[in-house]
Amino acid sequence: KAGVTQTPRYLIKTRGQQVTLSCSPISGHRSVSWYQQTPGQGLQFLFEYFSETQRNKGNFPGRFSGRQFSNSRSEMNVSTLELGDSALYLCASSLSRGGIYEQYFGPGTRLTVT
Amino acid sequence: AQSVTQLDSHVSVSEGTPVLLRCNYSSSYSPSLFWYVQHPNKGLQLLLKYTSAATLVKGINGFEAEFKKSETSFHLTKPSAHMSDAAEYFCVVSEGRDDKIIFGKGTRLHILP
Lengths: 114, 113
Prior knowledge:
Number of helices of chain B: 0
Distance between the termini of chain A: 37 Å
Number of strands of chain A: 11
Strand content of chain A: over 45%
Radius of gyration of chain B: 13 Å
Oligomer: heterodimer
Distance between the termini of chain B: 41 Å
Order of helices and strands of chain B: EEEEEEEEEEEE
Largest interface: A-B, 23 and 25 residues
Helix content of chain A: under 10%
Shape of chain B: globular
Structural class of chain B: mainly beta
């Protein structure tokens, strides 16, 4: 069974631009979560999608948004990029909602904002 | 609300010696607890999970963790460290269906030859 895939793996953008990251969950998984990982802040939860609906959201500004499609694939969008948005963005899928289900992580997208 | 504290940001052990990574949690209900490992430039991989079954949980690569409700702890151990264990380890707590999954800040494990 294929794992979680994220595209692109690396991205360089300029301040003020916008970016869209993509995540394909493991087949059959319906929950997709997004995380931002930086050396200073560690792993921070962005949002979770389940059945095309955002179910939980972390403490990030509205510039960060996402969506989930009917096939469970998810995209994350960051508008008006700032230098501080440089980070590794991780996507994780799980079978369903609820904390008992372990998450399976993709390799991440490394975003650099210059 | 739940929270998780990893008591050490860095741990160094010699190869072949035991590993102990400490994690304390706060939870109003019966939590689910996880340990994940992240090798350099890789995504996170599940090591083990506790979901109210046996309190001693065995995971991959010889790791295990014990859920101690009275101490609100879920420490990760391994009898004998290997060089390939060098990585960052995250303790994770989750309470229920609608609650977020909370990650600890991570413990970086260094293995000395």
